Write a sequence for this structure.
């Protein structure tokens, strides 16, 4: 299947995929490879079936494995990939593997969430901002600026789609990401 790739993007390949470039112009790429067994460690027995984000590597008619990114999201993922590379190189303490898992889970979770929200409407602009910046302080006014709508309109869109306000969605997303990190790393709440 032929796919047009435009930058910035992330292309998620599995061991069953192959890639061939036909028309190349000024291509720069960074690669990261890991075994799916890397995520085989869970802190709790009952969490063995919690999805880890590996679905981004499974192909379908809809999922090609190509994720075109907005600048803010691309910048955040590039930063996390840089940190992963630094951690692999330094291996500074016993928790370096946990930190790598944390960043991989954040990247995969962000890609899955962005995949679900591919249209560029006000709601999805706000969601992209949440996915790229959830770990820092985000205000409702900031989300409204990103989405180019007022508070009432943004919260109405979130209530219609998710049954909660934009800030409630942000907090729920933070909890979901924290659950992933605690489940698939050996980090505790203090770390």
């Amino acid at each position: 299947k032929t796919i047009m790739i435009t930058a910035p993007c992330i292309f998620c390949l599995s061991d069953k995929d192959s890639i061939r470039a036909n028309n190349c112009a000024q291509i720069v790429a960074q690669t990261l490879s890991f075994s799916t067994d890397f995520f085989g460690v869970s802190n709790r027995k009952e969490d063995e079936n919690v999805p880890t984000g590996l679905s981004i590597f499974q192909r379908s008619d809809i999922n090609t494995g190509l994720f075109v990114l907005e600048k803010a999201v691309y910048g955040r993922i590039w930063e996390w990939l840089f940190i992963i590379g630094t951690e692999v190189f330094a291996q500074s303490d016993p928790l370096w593997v946990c930190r790598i898992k944390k960043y991989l889970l954040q990247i995969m979770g962000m890609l899955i969430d962005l995949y679900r929200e591919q249209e560029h409407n006000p709601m999805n602009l706000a969601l992209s901002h949440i996915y790229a910046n959830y770990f820092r302080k985000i205000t409702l006014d900031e989300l409204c600026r990103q989405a180019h709508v007022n508070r009432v309109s943004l919260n109405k869109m979130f209530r219609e789609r998710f049954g909660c306000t934009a800030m409630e969605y942000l907090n729920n997303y933070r909890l979901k990401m924290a659950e992933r990190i605690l489940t698939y790393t050996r980090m505790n709440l203090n770390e």
Observations:
- Confidence is low (pLDDT under 50) at residues 44-50.
- Helices lie at 71-90, 96-116, 122-133, 140-147, 151-162, 166-184.
